[in-house]
Design goal:
alpha/beta; 5-stranded parallel β-sheet; 7 helices; 5 strands
Length: 261
């Protein structure tokens, strides 16, 4: 059925968690069998699993896709983000349905954490657990990463893993704001704002010397000759009475010319 679930795992999960542990070991065995760890693609579009996916990828070498899954990542070869993984591990089959559907087109096996109401279509290995809380999602990814590293021989089963499960938990912004609010805000004294810097012993305060205007800012010398000063000078004609000789005939001549001759 398209929305088939697994009610047979509900009783076992609620009582002892045996079914969850068995499916987790099976998924870890499949992931450890992949030769190249980068061929394992881990996906989480929900905020609860994005940090866990990134931590799982950093500890196991898988390829993470945290956030929105771009349609065509597994099918469209023209895309720059095109990938060909050999195994797909998702956090929520309902939220990550696009990646699961595309994996069915290219025959990629799918491992998914599933709740009792999660659709299991195209899911090959369903790990029954609670995927609705922050601590549960982070803990399941931490357990899966620890088992993968144990099966690969990176860590021993005798000693505890030094990585804490808290690193896989999603941190809300409100918690970070509360942590910042607990830090006391120390305000400096009012006298420190206008206080002059202290001068070391043996050194006198050096006052900045007044510097002349830089040469580059001065106007260049002109190549034109100096301009003459047109100043009125006293001449002999100054004060002359041009109309003194009013009876003078400026066009008259002393000789009489007979024009009719």
């Amino acid at each position: 059925a398209p929305n088939s679930t697994f009610p047979e795992a509900v009783v076992s999960t609620q009582s002892t968690g045996k079914k969850t542990w068995e499916k987790l070991l099976l998924a870890a065995r499949v992931i450890a069998s992949i030769e190249n760890p980068a061929d394992v693609c881990v996906i989480s579009s929900r905020n609860f699993g994005q940090r866990a996916v990134l931590k799982f990828a950093s500890h196991t070498g898988a390829t993470p896709i945290a956030g929105r899954f771009t349609p065509g990542t597994f099918t469209n070869q023209i895309q720059a983000a095109f990938r060909e993984p050999r195994l797909l591990v998702v956090t929520d089959p309902r939220a990550d349905h696009q990646a699961i559907v595309e994996s069915s087109y290219v025959n990629i096996p799918v491992i998914s954490f599933c709740n009792t109401d999660s659709p299991t279509k195209y899911v090959d290995i369903a790990i029954p657990c609670n995927i609705n809380t922050i601590n549960s999602v982070g803990l399941m990814w931490w357990l899966l990463a620890r088992e993968v590293k144990r099966m690969r021989g990176d860590i021993s089963r005798i000693t505890e893993w030094e990585i804490m499960p808290d690193l896989y938990f999603y941190r809300e912004e409100t918690k970070e704001e509360e942590e910042e609010a607990t830090v006391p805000d120390v305000q400096p004294a009012a006298d420190t704002y206008n206080a002059a810097p202290a001068v070391p012993d043996g050194f006198a305060a050096i006052e900045p010397a007044a510097t002349a205007e830089p040469v580059s800012m001065l106007a260049p010398n002109s190549t034109f000759p100096a301009k003459e000063e047109w100043v009125a000078t006293e001449t002999t004609t100054a004060g002359a009475d041009w109309g003194a000789d009013g009876n003078a005939d400026w066009g008259a001549s002393d000789t009489v010319v007979d024009w009719a001759a």
